[in-house]
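Note to self: keep these together.
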Amino acid sequence: MSILDTIAGPEDVKRLDEAQLDALCAEIRETLLKTVSHTGGHLASNLGVVELTVALHRVFRSPQDKIIFDVGHQVYTHKLLTGRRDRFDTLRQEDGISGFSRPNESEHDVFYSGHSGTSVSSAYGIVRGNQLNDDKSFTVAVVGDGSFTNGLVYEALNNAGRGDCRLIVVLNDNEMSISRNVGSLARYLAVIRSKPEYVRFKARTEAVLNHIPLLGKPLARALMRTKTRIKNDIYGSNLFEDMGFRYMGPVDGHNLPQLTDALETAKLVKKPVLLHIHTVKGKGCEYAEQHADVYHGISKFDIDSGEPLTSGTNFSEQFGKYMCEAALHDRTLCAVTAAMALGTGLSGFEERYPRRFFDVGIAEEHAVTFSAGLAKTGMKPVVALYSTFMQRAYDEILHDAALQGQKLVLAVDRAGLTGEDGETHQGIYDTAFLGSIPHITVWSPASYRELHACMHRALYVDPGVVAVRYPRGSEPDFPPDYAPSFDTFDLYGDENAETAVVSYGRVSAFAMQAAAGLPVRVVKLGRIRPIDPQAVEAVLRCRRVFFFEEGVRSGGVGEAFALMLLERGFAGQFSLTAVPDCFVPQASVDSQLRRFGLDADSIRKKITE
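Structure:
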């Protein structure tokens, strides 16, 4: 039996000796590689936090002490150590365990997670609530250095550093060094200051000095000022201590004894602590270490070579291809993204046009307002964001872009149902919230050629803010006799039919497949806001109109289309099939489409009932 097989919960981690802990970490890495190669998921980030997660569960008492992982894509080791080892092979599968933190899975998961920068805010809220309840437990927020490009982290640090509380923020630094580090002396002192014995000795010294009449307290203050000056000379000024945190580190994030000492020390400090650790993304796997960006999030792959098992192009790559071709002829074209150059297909643009490429970090709000500033100078900014992350920039799209009348293009990647990442990553809300913004234009292409055509119109024809939204993965199959016009809408099928099917995006392809051999007229919307009135006129005389939408029902395109029909005196029956009022759990995209009646078979069944 392996050591991992004996771990039923965090208490079992506490009984292991040092040699067993090293073996446990090796077994965990082997399990991560084996599982993720079959299920896909976040590999490099999880390989990098194995020792840290083991140390956290040795030092703290989960679930009494709360451990909150920022974003939550690095919780695989945490899941293995908290009673989910037997189900780990179901990772990211339908009805299996999630690739993120999920309270409905385990009492050891504190919050649903999936977006960056939220952990310190939620952790500080728990800390203050615990104080009101006279609860002496600890709260730990584990934050990657990438999340420190998100403004919410600094809002929380600024608020949390004001008083005494049992909050520990672990900064997992795997790419950049935030604190200046001068040679071996600095490294040695960082380790010394992270030992519990140092903190206890410091506390005893201060207590003795404070009890000496007349000279004791002034002497203690003088020693503190001297210590601070020496520390600043070695480490430089420290933002976190300026905010009120006790800064510790940097500590080797793969050295379990050092990590354990540092975490134990943090528990002794009577104020918020920021523990800075260094880790290596992809630790223990050569190809994941060398290409940490590629293996941050990956589909199924060959465990020996690391090569992906899927091939072929997708919408993100086609978007990147269009951007590179357009930028060759238009020197005002700029690309902006929020730490997602690879995911949004912009790596090639970054290489070819580095001066016109802007990665602003995990700061979607800033990305939009920054782009509005670019537009003010005559540039043509294209902001590439996943739909689920664009939610965070709603106010900026409305106030800083649309209201100002700025020429701005939003490339909305992963629009619609997104599959195995589950509730926190679904791209089904953008149609509703973009539809509430005045003077905005929204296109929803369903093929690569249509994507290119929509991007051209967005950049060079339509005024103001224009969104082009497209799904994750590859283009669907349209019937051979469908001839796209790349206009605001297309008609397909029986022009005299009394039954009409209306849709947009990839579901429009499924609608055409479903209509094969039936007396049905299909209206494929290309522009979903504003809806072309002629598209409504095309079905106004039909007896039955079915609308199928890969987005939320409430506030979506189907409701807008129904209202336009009603206002024009439509006397037939209208049926809207869309995602209802729910959060959509993980499953394959095909399974999610079937669940909501949006695949070809479900559409055909619906219209023939």
